[in-house]
Amino acid sequence: MTRRKRMLKDLDQDLRDHLEVETQDNIDRGMSPQEARYAALRKFGNVTRVKEETRAVWSLAWLEQLLQDVRFGIRTLWRSRGLTVVAVLAIALGIGVNVGVFSVLNGVALRLLPVPRAKQLVSVNQIFRGRFSRDIHGEGSMFSYPEYLDYRDHNHVFTGLVAYEPYVEATLAGGNVRQLLGASITCNYFDVLNEHPALGRGLVEGDCAGANAVVVLSDALWRQSFAADPSLVGKTITLNRTAYTVVGIAPAGFTGTEAIPSEFWAPITMEKALEPGRLRIEDGNQSWLALLGRTRPGVTMQEVRADLGVIAARIDRQYPGRTTSLAIRTATFFNSPEERGLVISVASVTLGAFALVLLIACANVANLLLARASVRQKEIALRLSIGAARWRLVRQLLTESLLLSLAGGVLGSLVALWSFVKIMEFVTSHLPRGFPTFALNVAPNLSVLAYSLGLTLVTGIVFGLVPALQSARLDLNSILKGDSAHGGSGKRSGRWLLNTLVGSQVAVCMVLLLAAGLLLRGLYYAQTVDPGFDEKNVAQAFFNLRSQGYDEHRATVFIEELRQRIAALPGVVEVAQAECAPLAHDFSEGEFTVPGRAEKIGIEYNHVSPEYFSVVGIPIVRGRGFTAGVNRDASAVIVTEATAQRLWPGEDPVGKTIGAGGYRYSVIGVAKDAQVSHLGDANTTYLYYPAAPRDDVRTYLLVRYANGFAGVAKGIRVASQSLDRDVSVDVIRLADNLEIWRAPSRIAAGLSGALGALALLLASIGVYGMVSYSVSRSVREIGIRMALGANGADVMRLVLWQAMRPVLIGGLVGVALCAGVSQVLSSMLFGLSAHDLTAFVCVPLFLLAVGLMSSYIPARRALHVDPMIALRCE
User: Fold this and answer.
1) Which stretch, 17-31, 74-88, 562-576, has highest mean pLDDT?
2) What's the average model confidence in pLDDT over 775-780?
3) What does each C-alpha distance from 198 to 201, 337, 402 come to in angstroms?
4) What does the CA dihedral 463, 465, 467, 468 come to, rounded to 10 degrees?
5) Alpha-carbon distances of 843 from 520, 756, 760, 829, rounded to whole Å
6) Taking a C-beta distance cutoff of 8 angstroms, is the pair 729, 717 a contact?
7) What is the pLDDT of residues 166-194, one digit of tens each?
8) How many CB atoms lie within 10 A of CB 770?
9) CA atoms within 13 A on the CB side of 651
């Protein structure tokens, strides 16, 4: 390729030398110079053919043809700059949104852990089958500590295997008390990850030999709470009332091995101090530890599975009836089968929705290419008539499509990769209080670039193949004679193809718009729904005294004294206590028995003080509530109206009994239904127990105040600190719990609305282009109709009917598709029907109105057709 010009020049010189030698030989035989020249040419043959055959020997013919196609395609697209710009922008929109959302999903589920040589790290999870019982803290696929030791000591494939408990809560005392989230780790954690602290050291095996209270802090915590004090290493800090010596500060940017950043890492043997009241480290049948291993050089994933499978089978023999298989994969932030299942389901829905927008864009560009192909019919016919192969012509047209796709893909990817980083920053900064912060990197990497390139190439082929094949099927005789009305592959088939593309766009657009309509309706319902309780002027304070080292007696004394002090604050009306605050994403559920029923019934429950119902505004509609004298009486319960109707239909529930855990409980009252557990669901089977002393170690205080949340919140904090300066308390408005439910719906509705608007824009352009093309191709037909007496209204009705027919069919198909899949959105509709009549009526009417407007504007041109000019033109 680099010496091509010189090689062609040498070839020409060789051919001239050969002809001159042959000509001289002929002259020597007695021929005249002119005769000698002609004889030499006749003997040599076609010079051009010899050049082509020679070039074919020392060049790549397919590459040369490809370069020719690319050069010709660029010139052709440059001549049609208007069409090129429209097509590139449509493809840029479609590819851009897909690349952007894939970059987010890549950061969530595909990107390796941000540690050195991350490809060598694998996650190990268990999948149990058979009849067995097992305690679970976290996720069922996790390991017990004895199981970890077995895998660590007997494997032959890892240079190191670590175990850790994620999301360990701890209270940092001293100065400003704050709640932290960290991890309990085995002491080889930092060595296996090849992450060495920036200051001090990591944990060593001696730290896990006993209850050695040492800790490594994150760089962010060190800077935020300790002002980046380099002398902190070697000093002590207090976590959950235990003094820990800071032995190291993690490097900047390292946040652990979970998506939610860890702020500290403590030895796993300090479990009892970090989580008082629990001792899991000796339990061999409890899931609570995640495992990560670094493979030895040259060890394959199949060898890892085979080696660990032997250990799993040996452990199973200790638990008859249980069979364990291992899920082993390269480690990412979401490793467990439970997490990956959730991510895959969300990713499938999200990518599917964004792919629909790209499908509309492809159909749009295919329409444009079909319209341009009709203009180029004579050019294509000439190429075919002088010997061009149909496949060669199709390849040329596909090259033009790929050029459009590459231009749109590059533009869309650049904009998406920049904008989605900003969008993620904006979304995370506007999440409501209580939402965790994720340590996700959505910057592009090789996976994102490969996805972008692959999507671009597939897109170019998808929207370019059908127009290219259609363009190569021409009636050459009719085209060359100038009969453009009948020279294509068939006017009816051409119109059918255009109508199919438009109908597909409308169907896809209808699905996206209906999904957006349902989500917006669900969000409106969530914003305006009456949850059945009064959340206004109620403060919520959460206390986890168990993690502070309190036993049941100390916790009861603390809570009783605190309630008295809060009740004495100015503006406080009443104080109540509950195990679960309304809509706090805090649930308790158990299995209950009802006399006369054989099956057990799952019921959610709450432990509340007598004041709970008046503080949150839930009335007792039958019977009575708890009283101060019996608030510790474990034999009384209050059920909701829906529960009473479900368990004792048509009967008086007061006095009925219900059983759980070997105890019998008597129903003393019926509370009004309220959405205290799940927003949008007031019919949850639910009951209330009276609060007991054991509930004080982890409880919510609900405070109704007359006015001024800020003053009440400050008073609650001061009262708590006056009793125990190291107790952490989180005070929010009760109404803030509703925002945590609404935020995902708001994000989903906004995203779906933006996709729907984009789809509507693209579909409108598609309908407009189809009608414009149809009118331009039907000038002769319209002229004949008007010459035979048709008026403008008749022509307009004809054009609009031809235009709206694919719109109507596509709309019906879209409604049917959305009705079939809308149940996927039910979790974000808050009780609204997935087949909401308002959405399924208003959205199709709106789309049809937009389609009619998009058809009417270009159809007006049909009214200005002069019959004489149209017929003379033909």
Assistant:
1) 562-576
2) 64
3) 8, 33, 50
4) 140
5) 12, 11, 11, 17
6) yes
7) 999 888 887 677 888 999 999 999 999 99
8) 28
9) 12
d(CA 615, CA 702) in angstroms, rounded, equals 7
Q: Cβ distance 100 to 416 under 8 Å?
A: yes
User: How many Å apart are CA 301 and CA 289, to the nearest integer?
Assistant: 22
Strands 620-623 and 663-671: antiparallel
Query: Which residues face 103 on adjacent strands?
Result: none
- The predicted pLDDT at position 476 comes to 54
Residue 734, token pair as written in the block:
């009760």
- Whether the pTM exceeds 0.85: the reply is no
Neighbour count for residue 376 (Cβ, 10 Å): 14
User: Residue 567 is encoded by which pair of tokens?
Assistant: 């009740």
Where would I find the H helices in 684-735? Answer: 709-723
- Cα separation, 807 vs 503, in Å, equals 5
DSSP state of 261: P
- Contact yes or no for 391/458 (Cβ under 8 A): no
Those residues whose C-beta lies under 8 Å from the C-beta of residue 691, and which sit 6 or more positions away, are 577, 578, 579, 607, 608, 609, 631, 632, 699
Residue of 377, 373, 379, 387 whose CA lies nearest to 475: 377
User: Tokens in use for 302?
Assistant: 């199949």
Candidates 849, 757, 826; CA nearest to 518 is 826
Distance CA 359, CA 777 (A): 26
What are the DSSP calls for 268-300, one per residue? Answer: GGGHHHHSTT---TT-TTEE-BEEEEEEPTT--
Residue 317, φ and ψ in degrees, nearest 5? -65, -20
The one-letter code for the residue type at 689 is: Y
Smallest CA-to-CA distance from 675 within 641, 624, 633 is with 641
CA distance 192 to 367: 57
The secondary structure element, H or E, covering residue 542 is strand 538-544
Within 10 angstroms of residue 335's Cβ, the number of other Cβ atoms is: 27
Task: Output the six-digit token pair for 472.
Answer: 């190569």
Residue 558 has what pLDDT?
92
Average pLDDT, the chain: 82
DSSP single-letter state for residue 549? T
Percent of the chain beyond pLDDT 90?
A: 27
Q: Which two tokens stand for residue 839?
A: 């959405």
What average pLDDT score do residues 504-508 get?
A: 83
Q: Is residue 573 a contact partner of residue 706, using CB atoms and an 8 Å limit?
A: yes
Q: How far apart are CA 466 and CA 488, in angstroms?
A: 14
Contacts of 522 (CB under 8 A, 6+ apart): 745, 749, 825, 828, 829, 830, 832
* pLDDT tens column, 407-425: 888 888 888 877 777 777 7
List pLDDT tens digits, range 277-294: 677 888 888 899 999 999
What is the CA angle 342-344-349, rounded to 5? 100
Query: Which residues on adjacent β-strands are paired with residue 591?
Result: 602
Q: What is the 3-state secondary structure (H, E, C) of 361-399?
A: HHHHHHHHHHHHHHHCHHHHHHHHHCCCCHHHHHHHHHH
Q: CA-to-CA distance for 601 and 805, rounded, in angstroms?
A: 53
Residues in the chain: 874
CA distances to 133, 143, 325, 331 from 128, in Å: 10, 11, 7, 21
Q: What is the DSSP string of 776-822?
A: HHTHHHHHHHHHTT--HHHHHHHHHHHHHHHHHHHHHHHHHHHHHHG
